[in-house]
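This section describes the prediction task in plain terms. A model, or a person checking by hand, is given the sequence of a single protein chain and must write out its three-dimensional structure as a string of tokens. No templates, partner chains or ligands are provided. The sample shown here is typical of the held-out split.
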Amino acid sequence: MIYFDNSATTKISPSALETYQKVSEQFFGNPSSLHQLGEHSSRLLHQSRLQIAQLLGVTDEEIYFTSGGTEGDNWAIKGTALEKKPYGNHIITSSVEHPAVRESMEQLEQFGWEVTYLPVNEKGEVSADDVKKAVRPETVLVSIMAVNNEVGSIQPIEEIGEVLREYPSVHFHVDAVQAVGKVPLKLGKDSRIDMAVFSGHKFHAPRGTGFMYIKRGRRLAPLITGGGQESSQRSGTENVPAIAAMAKSFRMTMEPIQTNANKMMEIRSYLMNSLKEKKKVTVFSPEKGAPHIVCFGIKDIRGEVVVHALEDKGIYVSTTSACSSRSQVEASSLIAMNVPKQVAQTAVRVSLSPDNTLEEAEEFMTVFNNVYEQFTYIN
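The expected answer:
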């Protein structure tokens, strides 16, 4: 089996699974409880938070645990909207965001909010100048993803941040889910990013885990209220075993980030170059995209047909976003990039992790060559 669908989810690492089991057995107390078992869990929770913060170069008070990327994006957007409603009702985002962002925006529009959806170029990139032009006196939030989940475009986050330094009251939210372990993201007091969202199952941690960076001094209304956990910002008994496992996976992802990125980039370059040799293959991913995503299509062959043909040979890829693949809709990012709908429907996404190898990529191309010949012979 070759698993090339890591942008949908990664396999939990053996060390994270070991941590999860050990903590489940030995640290089962509620971290909010006053007794010794609760104190042990609380201490481990703090250690996990501190470890993540240190790896990001921020303070532990700026890290909040969530259930993953979708919750984090919803919280960043709707929490800002609730908190800053007295100051304005305008939000800026891009036309290539993940559904967790896009649908949050659409929901706010139903309640009277105004949202500007910025266009992208043929590489799927937003212009920082367009952000500047879109800012209005009533703007309270800019939400731009770090790495596009469908084609791997890297957004000019630092350039956008420089633009927003002129507007210190505007919150800047970054969906960093696809950037973790692949593309560096500068956070902390010298960064203009106010909120960044991370999802554990994208870096070999258990599903249902995630965390959010919220810069000190930035206020968000909580979406989940109750027992006052996470400094009364995100109530609910913390899943200490899963959080500890996530912190372990995050350390194992971030410490060798450059080595892993170089490895994935080598594999990506091989795949990109090999696919471009095929006359009826269109590669949608930009040349200077993230090191783990290759999006392409075979002329006149729907993406799901290619996915299942490769699956029959033991190779697992996806169409584009796992969140929309079962609805069999064309890649929204490709449509925003002005790719014709019929062409966008051919999209297939290969997504890598540091566990993948060049040998797997070579085997993939051997299998793909046969699939390609079958489809192009028919057509």
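For orientation: The longest strand covers residues 293-298.
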